[in-house]
Amino acid sequence: LVVGIHNRRPWAYRDKDSNVVGIHPDVIRAAFAPLGIKDFEFVVSDFGAMIPGLLANRFDIIASGVAITPARCEQVLFSEPDVAVGDSLLVPKGNPLKLHSYDDIARNPKVRLAGGRGSENTKNAMAAGVPEGQISLYPNNEAAVSAILAGRADVTTLSVPSAIGVIDEQKVEGIERATPFKGLIKPNGQPAKLYTGTVFPKSSAKLRDAYNAELAKLRASGALKTIMTKYNFTDDEDAGSVTTSQICAGNG
User: Fold this and answer.
1) For 35, left (φ over 0), alpha (ψ -120 to 50), or beta?
2) I need a surface site. Which of 3, 20, 44, 66 has the fewest CB within 10 A?
3) Which residues of the chain register pLDDT less than 50?
4) pLDDT tens sequence across 126-160
């Protein structure tokens, strides 16, 4: 199979030895192996060019952190969700203020939250009740983390992949993810998260269905959790019972 990836940690990327690693290459290798598919050609593409590339038959599938959305469901087929990506908190080692939700921040007026200027994560924190007066805005994730390390902030909010990247790729000492973490809950009772899956062309429904059956076995056996843990995803990122059909219908 020719697989489109966008070379971004922790989704799918080439390591220092040019091997393709990441949560989604590992998941598809494990899911396709029982189907007799073990030979993959990984092709790096810009993120925005991956679905057009699939539609133009440059790839057979995409396995690189693509979120399932109603608009994309009109163009392509998605597997069932593998992981759910929401917000996360980075805190000093040991999480001295015991912050595990936006509510924890809102309830303690002394907590100083570093947020990304214009980021959805910061907007979610405010929507969850964190007062603007407790938030300082920074131009990027690195600046927000530096604020914690310098004692100018107590916590920062950023997406799960960004948090993993800060810890894994940038090797920042003295910082950890606050787990478990409860983010913004939407009016329908679902957490504000993006659900990712493997992407197939509309012509590959049978292959997608066979893949889904193997993905379900990986989840049931605990093998999916093992892969998630390898790339620093936690139980907070388990997709749970949310289905692709729900998300495609706008109910995810």
Assistant:
1) alpha
2) 44
3) none
4) 999 999 999 999 998 889 999 999 999 999 999 99
Predicted local distance difference test score (pLDDT) of residue 167: 84
CB 188 within 8 A of CB 121: no
Q: What does the block give as tokens for 134?
A: 């407790």
Contact present, 161 and 67 (Cβ < 8 Å): no
| Residue type (1 letter), 107 | R
